[in-house]
Write a structure and sequence with these properties.
Length: 328
């Protein structure tokens, strides 16, 4: 299928406008929190004098009372790829702090997202195909129950049971204190051991929605005339189930998958806080508590960019997998 040039320009233009709005909100929102990060940093470093706070305020560019001039300066530095210096991790640049946290978040949330969609789709397909059976009823009951439970409560419950009482998994961090002295296999096992509970929690928390969406989509598809015709023509059950039914039922879920991938970076803030897992979520939480404007801006910029990019990819790819979408 060939793309219409106007369609492409509209999609890309909309993405650019969304990015500009996100950048502007990214600048304004941290400053609406209130407080003075220079005073906070000076008091935390036991340097709580007005002279030190004034020097820090000047270095951070907060001495200019005009919000507009701060905004223009922020845009200029952003165009140069400079996200500033983290107040809390001073003098570490925001880019270095984010690059240190990003691999942990991407590894856990991306794994959990893909596995939850895969398992949810398989359960949803089987439930819709065997509607009314014990399997379908149990999966529906479990899905409705999990859908009503806040996922941070699930995380706290898992921490209490598996980490605190049973001591099967660690209570925090991304690897053991002896990580540097371990061989390659030991390092991998240490990372997997620490990541298991956060990943498992995210899978359980998001599984119910995927099951219900795909089951409902497939139930609708099964009532279509072409499914009845395929059965009348003697096409095998496996082919009708996956090539005709699941393939068309998955199309609406594709957009949901791409949006979930876009939220990979910011999708585990609460889970990382509960598990003290050193990803973007925990970094963002600490930055908000300490009024670390550059780090807050850097974290939310990463989240906004990932969401915009994956939504744009979904807009461009969807017409290729579903010819019914008109590009005019």
């Amino acid at each position: 299928m060939r793309y219409n040039a106007v369609y492409l320009l509209k999609r890309i233009g909309f993405a650019l406008i969304t990015f500009y709005v996100a950048v502007t909100l990214n600048f304004l929102l941290p400053r609406l929190i209130g407080g003075d990060p220079a005073d906070t940093l000076a008091s935390e470093k036991a340097l709580g004098s007005q002279e030190v706070a004034k020097a820090l305020r000047e270095q951070f560019g907060l001495n200019d009372p005009s919000l507009f001039h701060q905004y223009v300066r922020y845009l200029k530095e952003l165009l140069q790829g400079n996200l500033g210096v983290s107040y809390v991790n001073y003098p570490a640049p925001v880019v270095d702090v984010m690059l240190k946290a990003l691999p942990w978040t991407i590894g856990t949330v991306l794994t959990a997202t893909l596995l939850s969609y895969l398992v949810g789709w398989l359960i949803g397909i089987r439930g819709a195909w065997k509607a009314g059976t014990i399997f379908d009823n149990v999966s529906l009951f479990g899905s409705f129950f999990l859908n009503a439970v806040p996922y941070f409560w699930i995380a706290i419950l898992f921490v209490m049971i598996f980490a605190f009482h049973l001591d099967w998994f660690p209570l925090g961090q991304a690897f053991d204190p002896t990580y540097d002295s371990l061989d390659t296999g030991g390092k991998l096992l240490s990372i997997l051991h620490h990541a298991f509970l956060p990943v498992f929690t995210l899978i359980i928390a998001s599984l119910a929605g995927h099951i219900l969406v795909l089951r409902n989509n497939l139930m609708r598809v099964l009532s279509e005339d072409y499914m009845l015709l395929a059965k009348a023509k003697g096409i095998s059950e496996r082919r009708r189930k996956y090539m005709y039914g699941a393939r068309n039922a998955l199309l609406p879920s594709f957009t949901g998958l791409m949006m979930s991938l876009g939220h990979v970076i910011g999708g585990a803030i609460t889970t990382e806080i509960v598990f003290s897992y050193p990803g973007v979520g925990l970094v963002t939480f600490n930055a908000i508590l300490n009024h670390d404007y550059p780090l807050i801006q850097g974290a939310f910029l990463c989240i906004a960019v990932s969401v915009i990019i994956f939504n744009l990819i979904a807009d461009l790819v969807y017409p290729l997998i579903d010819p019914r979408v008109a590009l005019s």
